[in-house]
Amino acid sequence: MNEGVLVLGADYRGLGVVQSLGRLGIPVVVLHEGPRNLANYSRYVWRAIRWPAGDEASRTAFLIDLAARERLRRWMIVPTQDETAAMCARNAVDLCSAFRVSVPPWEVLRWAYDKRLSHQLAADTGVEFANTWEPTRDEFNSIEFEYPVIIKPAVKSSVNALTIAKAWRVDEPESLSKRLDEASSLMPLDELLVQELIPGNGKNQLSFAALASEGQPIATMVAQRTRQYPMDFGRASTFVETVDEPAIEELGGRLIKAMDYTGLIEIEFKRDPRTNVLKLLDMNARVWGWHTLGRRAGTDFSVLLWRLVHGDTPAPVRARVGVSWMWPAADIPTAAREIFGRRLGLREYARNFRRPTDYATLVLDDPLPGLLEVPLHLAGALQRRRATQEVLRRKPDGARSFQSPEEA
Questions:
Q1: Is residue 335 part of a domain?
Q2: Is-contact 358 237, C-beta < 8 A?
Q3: Do residues 214 and 288 both lie within one domain?
Q4: Whole-number mean pLDDT of the chain?
């Protein structure tokens, strides 16, 4: 069999990689952690294999054994989550014996993975970032915060209510200690950050997305994350548009150069309406949710990554401005809330459909994943609800220490 790609993750991010490379006739195998993952149902998937739970060492060993057992040697491996990207980077030496690893080594990727290091890098390169405090500092209790603030993980070392939500909002001093206690029951206190909540919604959030080689961006895109869920600090973007923002390109390029970065990366900024200053929020050293926007904008990042990993460095290319990406399953309810709240007009929303748009999971040549998305989501939500009820039923007092965003 020809060389192909092993995609670690079968959600909508993984589905985008599957479709872009599958259309070129490249064999694709996906590793999934549940039967309801979208990419499992793509016509372009050669095999969908269940990825057993385990620690990093056992999962790395599983991948190396899989390469030999399924004849995947020298296939490109593409992680779709922070945890799997970090695993591939930390174990790059072992994995490179079996695969072409598409993320940079740990000494590079760690600057994007750990937000504490990201802030250090930003400070060293003159990039502004949101005011941030570490709860473990001795002077933390004496700090007078300007509310609201958010509690967020510095690293995503585990999957829990906080890492799924991305951040918890805190509106008054009385709640901060309580929420920190709840957060520290999920992950170590020294992996938590308290950060100012910059005003504004998704329209203030912009991203620099790039495929880079040795610190030089090759394929680039600047996007405005117009709608997201939730709107104030989004767990996921739902409507994204390419825009012309040279300042974002300059800041993003500065960070990529400082890391000497090679691979795919999305760098998130937010414009502070109080000062008009662009501030760094996060860096995602992997494929991101709306990466398929490049399919319409002339920068199909999955295809360009394939070429780079195989020694064919693409010519520099910038995404076309005025192209959009919509995730209908998430954007329709998000837009409905904005319309009912009189923050979005019907005509404005209708105009979103008049431009070149990538509809994420809904594509004509591979319709099944998109058609199954809502039923699969509802089935998964019902299963989680039943599991939660069973846990509560077994507790003597029916109490729980926190309420997750999915349960709220």
A1: yes
A2: no
A3: yes
A4: 90
Is the distance from CB of 200 to CB of 224 less than 8 angstroms? Answer: no
Range list of β-strands (E), 160-255: 168-170, 192-196, 205-213, 216-229, 236-242
341 vs 359: CA distance, rounded Å: 25
**Quick one: tokens of 17?**
């990689």
CATH number of the domain that residue 171 is part of: 3.30.1490
Q: 317 in a domain, yes or no?
A: yes
Query: Both 269 and 310 in a single domain?
Result: yes
Quick: pLDDT tens for 282-313.
999 999 999 999 999 999 999 999 999 999 99
b/e per residue 78-114 (b: at least 16 CB within 10 A): bbbbbbbbbbbbbbbeebeebbbbbbbbbebbbbbbb
Residue 363 lies in a domain: no
How many domains are contained in the chain? 3
pLDDT digits 0-9 by tens, 110-158: 999 999 999 999 999 999 999 999 887 666 667 778 899 999 999 987 7
Range of the domain at 29: 5-108
229 lies in a domain? yes
Q: Do 191 and 244 fall into the same domain?
A: no
DSSP string of 334-346? HHHHHHHTTSS-H
The answer, yes or no, to whether residue 391 has pLDDT greater than 80, is: no
Q: Where is the domain boundary, 181, 196, 211?
A: 196
| pTM, rounded to two decimals | 0.90
pLDDT in tens, 216-236: 999 999 999 999 887 766 678
Q: Find all residues with CB under 8 Å of 6, minimum gap 6, and list them.
A: 29, 30, 31, 63, 66, 72, 75, 76, 77, 78, 99
**Among 297, 240, 245, which residue's Cα sits nearest to residue 271?**
245
User: What single DSSP character describes residue 286?
Assistant: S
